[in-house]
């Protein structure tokens, strides 16, 4: 079973009152109506042996990653985190001090964004360590930025640099782009945005599918992280490695875009990597100048 096909099955059976659930499954966060307010919700989990290696990385890093992954979803919507709850399934015999270290890691990431850990659940089982976090957020000043608003002719841009996150500890120690997303949404007309968790090639496909568009990516424009520079195929690493937790967004090509590229309102660079096209799939112009289909080859859970 592929994760994406299972999610599609769930979405095909989802039927919500749009006044109560303006945004359901399929975006980085769901949006629900609570009284006269909108509340954004996301949940994610990390598993020992899949998202981290407990023996190598330690429990505090695992807790931090669990919270930071969810905060990256908040960033993708240009939202403001409000609070989090966590559920932890501990292996039998797990040490008290290691459980406390998980809590400290959760707090490390949450406190940096004024996102308190307000509750949760702890259980013990026979399986590997699993940590699940759910975050509630409120829309940012510019409202919710969804995946589905990209327009033909838009520029495609990313923050930071891509590839090689698992070659060191960057997949554990990244800083979610919450502040950067709010700055972008407050100063530019963002049409669509997503965070890069599964790999640029996969997440770009999600954005284009939601928007009903295609995309052209220019390999020579990809900002390659130093962790991937020594890879045999650095371009493939930047496209497919995943867990960069940078932002991919679409916005108009105008003089304000040039200002953003030259002088981002934060420390991370912003790079234009391509353009939004009519809905004819994903394309990559390689270093040799040849244009070929871009096949999504990032991370996907399979069972």
Overview of this protein structure:
- By secondary structure, this protein is an alpha+beta fold.
- The chain folds into two domains: 3-139, 60s Ribosomal Protein L30, Chain: A; 155-293, Phosphoribosyl-aminoimidazole Synthetase, Chain A, domain 2, CATH 3.90.650.
- It has helices at residues 3-12, 54-57, 59-76, 96-111, 170-173, 178-187, 200-211, 226-229, 234-240, 255-262, and strands spanning 30-34, 37-47, 79-91, 117-125, 130-139, 155-159, 192-195, 214-218, 247-251, 270-277, 282-285, 291-293.
- Strands 7-9-6-10-8-11-12 form a seven-stranded mixed sheet, sandwiched between helices. It has a five-stranded mixed sheet with strand order 1-2-5-3-4.
- β11 and β12 (291-293) form a beta hairpin.
- α3 (59-76) runs parallel beside α4 (96-111) and α3 (59-76) runs parallel beside α6.
- The longest helix is centred in the first third of the chain and has 18 residues, at 59-76.
- The chain is globular and about 55 Å long.
- The mean pLDDT is 94.
């Amino acid at each position: 079973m592929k994760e994406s096909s299972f999610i599609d099955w769930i979405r095909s059976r989802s039927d919500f009152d749009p006044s109560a659930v303006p945004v359901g499954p399929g975006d980085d966060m769901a949006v629900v109506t609570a009284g006269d307010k909108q509340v954004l919700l996301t949940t994610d989990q990390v598993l020992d042996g899949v998202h981290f290696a407990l023996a190598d990385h330690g429990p505090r890093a695992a807790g931090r990653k669990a919270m930071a992954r969810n905060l990256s979803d908040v960033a993708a919507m240009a939202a403001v985190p409000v609070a989090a709850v966590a559920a932890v399934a501990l292996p039998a015999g797990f040490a008290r001090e290691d459980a406390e270290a998980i809590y400290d890691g959760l707090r490390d990431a949450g406190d940096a964004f004024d996102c308190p850990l307000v509750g949760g659940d702890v259980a013990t089982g026979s399986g590997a360590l699993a940590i699940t976090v759910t975050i509630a957020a409120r829309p940012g000043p510019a409202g919710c930025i969804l995946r589905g608003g990209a327009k033909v002719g838009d520029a495609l841009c990313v923050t930071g640099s891509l590839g090689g996150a698992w070659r060191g500890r960057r997949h554990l120690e990244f800083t979610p782009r919450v502040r950067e997303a709010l700055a972008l949404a407050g100063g530019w007309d963002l049409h669509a945005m997503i965070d890069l968790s599964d790999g640029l090639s996969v997440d770009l496909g999600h954005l284009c599918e939601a928007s009903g568009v295609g995309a052209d990516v220019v390999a020579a424009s990809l900002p390659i992280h130093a962790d991937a520079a020594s890879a045999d195929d650095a371009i493939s690493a930047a496209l497919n490695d995943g867990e960069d937790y940078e932002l991919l967004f679409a916005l108009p090509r105008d003089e304000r875009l040039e200002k953003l590229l030259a002088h981002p309102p934060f420390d991370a660079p912003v790079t234009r990597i391509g353009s939004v096209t009519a809905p004819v799939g994903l394309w990559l112009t390689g270093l040799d100048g040849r244009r070929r289909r871009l096949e999504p080859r990032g991370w996907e859970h399979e069972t």
